[in-house]
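**Protein of interest**
===
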Amino acid sequence: MIVIQRVRVRWSAAGRGAPQADARRGLNHAVQIPTPLPAIDVVVHDVFADEAAKYTRREDVLAGDVGIVRSLDLSLAFDGAAVTVARLPGKAAFPRSGRSTYLFTLTQGQVGRYRANFRFRFTDCACDPSWYYEDWVVHVSNGDVAPNRFLRGEPDRDVDNRVRLYDSPARQTSR
């Protein structure tokens, strides 16, 4: 079983200032996994907090085969008991990525964390300069996981691809 939790926080260009940042501070942290989880190949706990909804969290649980992770712009590849996690190219205007990006490989029982932030256009038209922003924290467990595992303890693999969305140097770490 693969368990994935994606926590996303979304805000508008008008919500970029310090007071607005204070309102969303801490919303991008992992939360308790709902129980019981379906006993199926892949379970996704998708948590979303949007400025437009006053940062009220919405939580969904999706379950299915490995194809459901495509809705998260992720892919999974298996090699025996190990699973490799990659980020698929998405619709982000910044940072731009035209190809899949390797994140990490997890052996049975390991947990990985991927952190990233993005700037998106509201429409696909270059004539519309309206933007929105998202901050993601994604935890992936290769194997069943305790409901509080993503809250406590360090991940076995940690990839931080957050960038400064206002044209400052990128911050890239991995372990």
In short: The mean pLDDT is 85. Residues 18-24 form the longest helix (7 residues). The radius of gyration is 16 Å. The CA atoms of residues 111 and 155 lie 5 Å apart.
